[in-house]
Design a protein that fits this description.
single chain; 64% helix; two-stranded antiparallel sheet; mainly alpha
Length: 316
């Protein structure tokens, strides 16, 4: 309905006292705070982090990620319990593993998390049509991908940093920790550096594989084949066939382990072979080579991710 001037009638609502009220339902511009690109990136990182860990989702989406977290944390809890019961320095007595050796207990949980959970963080946005909506905000393609990569790396750091940080604090309280504040800080920096480095390398590779398909199952298979297949093939070539140890450059997991060892000061030809991994020839590789290979994995993963999403953006 409209009046004689052609102006549409405004809706009326009857108040409690029977008098009519005119409610202005026309478009109103947003007048709240505008946080720009930084706010948009923080929102994507936060929502992706919660999505990956299953927060705000049905229980079935929480089971697998938290199973991986529990598997990574349980050995640390057991070790702390043993250290509390036995009144000796279990690390110096070689009864409990040192900090760098604990990564062997979380490798399975880390690979499981990357293979089963991480692909969903990219595949879901393409499958449900959310990607164009993200790019309609202040986000651009590079900032969207950077936010997703940061969210995955932060999620993986829950596994690569969390248990080690728990061990450090618990051992310190129990009395088996580093000798003084300086040593304590050095161990903490090494834990953070090694955990973040491993998380960044595996996150880049996992996201690159996940960008190549819109099917979550195919992405899961691809990530698992990359992590486990490369480990098996290169291990056979180097350890059994006794080929050049630089072949380990194609082993994502082994290169992450080698970088972690160098950060903790073990496993280098200059520092002595890591006794926790007998028979491995990876200690023959220089630290510069190990760092360069890990950087190359991150760069290659980022390049594949960027190339794939440029093609997706161009097709929309």
């Amino acid at each position: 309905m409209s009046d004689a001037t052609g102006t549409p009638d405004l809706p009326e609502q009857v108040a409690d006292d029977g008098a009519a009220q005119i409610l202005d339902q026309r478009y109103r511009p947003y007048s709240g705070a505008r946080h720009g690109l930084g706010g948009a990136m923080r929102a994507v990182i936060g929502s992706s982090f919660r999505f990956t860990l299953g927060f705000g989702r049905p229980a079935r989406h929480k089971f697998l990620p938290w199973l991986a977290v529990v598997v990574a944390l349980v050995p640390a809890i057991v070790f702390v319990g043993i250290a509390t019961v036995l009144d000796i320095d279990l690390i110096s007595e070689n009864i409990l593993p040192e900090y760098h050796e604990y990564y062997g207990f979380i490798e399975a949980a880390l690979f499981f998390f990357c293979g089963i959970v991480v692909p969903e963080i990219l595949v879901a946005d393409r499958r449900n049509g959310m990607l164009p909506m993200y790019l309609a905000t202040p986000l651009r393609l590079w900032s969207y991908l950077a936010s997703k990569a940061a969210a995955v790396a932060a999620t993986l750091a829950v596994i690569t940093v969390g248990p080690l940080a728990f061990l450090l604090v618990a051992y310190t309280i129990e009395g088996s920790g580093p000798a003084g504040p300086g040593d304590w800080l050095i161990v903490l920096v090494r834990i953070l550096g090694a955990g973040i480095a491993i998380a960044a390398t595996i996150a880049a590779a996992s996201l690159a594989i996940s960008s190549l398909t819109d099917r979550r199952a195919f992405a899961v298979i691809g990530v698992i084949l990359l992590l486990l297949g490369s480990q098996l093939v290169t291990g056979v070539l180097v350890e059994v066939a006794e080929m050049d140890p630089r072949i380990y450059a194609f082993n994502l997991g082994e290169m992450g382990e080698a970088l972690k060892d160098r950060i903790f000061g073990v496993g280098s030809p200059m520092l002595g072979e890591d006794e926790s991994s007998p028979g491995r020839r990876i200690s023959e590789l220089s630290t510069l080579f190990v760092v360069a290979v890990n950087a190359a994995w991150v760069a290659a993963g980022g390049a594949v991710l960027w190339w794939r999403y440029r093609r997706i953006e161009a097709s929309q």
